[in-house]
Design goal:
This protein has helices at about 1-20, 65-85, 85-95, 100-115, 120-125, 135-150, 155-160, 330-345, and strands spanning about 20-25, 45-50, 55-60, 165-180, 185-200, 210, 225, 235-240, 245-250, 250-255, 260-280, 285-300, 310, 315, 330. With about 350 residues, the protein is of the alpha+beta class. β13 (about 310) and β14 form a beta hairpin. The longest helix has 20 residues, at about 65-85.
Length: about 350
């Protein structure tokens, strides 16, 4: 009963203050539409998730820490929009934050915890855009860069990724398609089995996944789709362009992911589109609503390794020493160092 009363009070405060927060009893099930309703889909695999127009999305079964975290973050962006209405004012405020101060450390703490709890729900919050609030995604790149410069790149790396996973690759499916007249794009679709969820406790729901048909490579904006068929023992999937390069100073690295190998992968979610089924025009405001949205997952561009670290005979290969722990470090020690770094972020002031 006490928990129930606290939840009601928190939601009442959030709703009265921001007008767009709502408490939901449970997530509604999703059945992806075939063919996909969205335009400008590139060939590939996509996951659909419920689109919630009210932000932040709060559930009655959320841990108290996550529920409070979303309300706090929503309060910050609402306050920031009023007090720092211009992009320059927001940038100046971010530049004033120090790694020894509470503001930046609490921001890092809740950014990490909310993503770890449910990466898709977190990304849904980051991409929210409501009148009277700053869109979190518009501020995040500068904030992450500032964290890297003031608190060290390793802290930036673990906050930037929505997923940090120890993976075993099952199959790597290469695919080439015509992305523009005379220009071909090469992708690898990597099917994996998760050995360890270091960050990102909710994995993609493959029951909501679809594959955009890739047979006709000239139709890069086609919207045909089919149900996704997975190799055995697959519970994670990301796509990767072997031509992508990540530059760190004078170093440039191109990462090649191979089958039946182990990797530590830092990954993030990108949204392809929302199925826009209703467009309601309110005076001085246009609001797009939908039932669900489509995502894909790819490695995070961090350091010179691009977020992908091979594990060879129990040794993590950090070729360019992105974390500062050496170029070859035993897997248990790498994970221990990573967990110590994570604990320093998510347990701040506890």
């Amino acid at each position: 009963m006490k928990r129930y009363i606290v939840l009601l009070l928190l939601v009442a405060v959030a709703t009265a203050t921001f007008g767009k927060s709502v408490l939901l009893s449970e997530e509604m099930p999703i059945t992806p539409t075939v063919p996909c309703p969205c335009e400008k889909f590139y060939p590939g695999y996509y996951f659909s998730e419920r689109y919630y127009p009210n932000k932040p999305v709060l559930f009655t079964n959320m841990p108290m820490d996550q529920l409070i975290g979303y309300i706090i973050m929503d309060s910050i962006i609402s306050y920031g929009h009023r007090e720092y209405p211009s992009a320059k004012a927001q940038d100046d405020f971010i530049e004033s934050l120090t790694c020894s101060g509470d503001t930046l450390n609490y921001a890092m703490k809740y950014l990490y915890r909310l993503a770890d709890y449910n990466p898709f729900l977190y990304y849904n919050f980051l991409t929210s855009s409501q009148k009277g609030k700053t869109q979190p995604m518009s501020v995040l790149p500068h904030l992450l860069k500032h964290i890297g410069s003031k608190c060290g790149n390793p802290k930036q790396y673990v906050i930037k990724a929505e997923y940090i996973l120890h993976l075993q690759t099952n199959e790597v499916e290469p695919f080439t398609y015509l992305s523009a007249p005379g220009d071909y794009t090469h992708l690898d679709y990597v099917y994996c089995q998760v050995i360890d969820n270091i960050k990102g406790q909710v994995l993609p729901d493959f029951s909501t996944a679809i594959e955009v048909i890739r047979e006709d490579t000239t139709k890069i904006f086609g919207n045909l789709s089919t149900s996704l068929v997975l190799p055995p023992n697959t519970n994670f999937l990301f796509y990767y362009n072997t031509g992508w390069s990540v530059t760190n100073g004078t170093k440039t690295s191109q990462i090649k992911v191979e089958e039946n190998k182990e990797y530590i992968v830092f990954a993030f979610i990108t949204r392809a589109c929302i199925n826009e089924n209703v467009i309601s025009v309110i005076p001085f405001r246009t609001e797009i609503t939908g039932d669900y949205q489509y995502y894909d997952i790819r490695p995070t561009a961090i350091g010179a390794s691009g977020g992908v670290f091979p594990v060879v005979n129990g040794i993590v290969i950090d070729k360019h020493n992105d974390f500062g722990w050496g170029t070859e470090i035993s897997l248990p020690i790498f994970k221990q160092n990573l967990q110590t770094l994570i604990d320093s972020i998510k347990n701040y002031d506890e």
